[in-house]
C-alpha cells in the first residue's frame, strides 16, 4: 500500500488504503442505491466549462448488461473482472474537429476525474475498483450502439475483495515525490 519511502502518514485514509484488486468476491451483491451513489459521485466531478462529457454503461453481475460487457473482455481481464459486483464502461464525449457536435477537448481528462470520484466514493463504501483498458473498445461501442462522437475509453470493475486479500505491493511501485516536480 505504501511506496519505498514509507507510509504516507498524512495522506487521507481513503487514498492511502485504495488499491486495484484482481480478485473480487463473486458472492458479494451491491446494496440498493449503491449504483446511484457511485454515479452521483461521478456526476459531481468538475469538468471543463461544466461540459460533463461522460456516460457510463453499468452492468450488475447477473444482469443482461453485465453479460453483454463480459463478452468483450480481453483474456487477461476475463480472469477477474466478471466476478466483481459491477462492471462499468466509461464513455467520453470526444472532440471531433470540423463538426458542430457538442464537445470538449478535455473530455478524456474530465472522464478520468469523474471515474476517480467514483473510485473514492466506492472506497468510502468499502468497495474496491480496478480500472482497466484490457477489453475490446470497438466491440463495446458496437454492442451498445455508441455513436462516433463518443469514445468507449476504459472500464472499471467494482466490488468487494474476499476476506484477507491484500495488495501485492511489489507491483505497485511509485515514482519518487521529487520526480513529480517539473523544474523547467
Ligand atoms: C487507464 C487505466 C488503464 C488500466 N488498464 C489496466 C488493464 O488493462 N489491466 C489491469 O490489470 N490493470 C489496469 N489498470 C490498473 C493499473 O495497472 C493500476 O491502477 C496500477 O498498477 C497502480 O496500482 P494501484 O491502482 O493498485 O495503485 C489500469 C488503470 C488505469 C487508470
UniProtKB/TrEMBL annotation:
PANTHER family: NAD(P)H NITROREDUCTASE YDGI-RELATED, NADH DEHYDROGENASE_NAD(P)H NITROREDUCTASE XCC3605-RELATED. GO terms for molecular function: oxidoreductase activity. SUPFAM superfamilies: FMN-dependent nitroreductase-like. Transmembrane segments: none annotated. Residues 16-76 form the Nitroreductase domain. InterPro entries: Nitroreductase (IPR029479), Nitroreductase-like (IPR000415). It holds the Pfam family Nitroreductase. Belongs to the nitroreductase family. This is Nitroreductase. Keywords: Oxidoreductase.
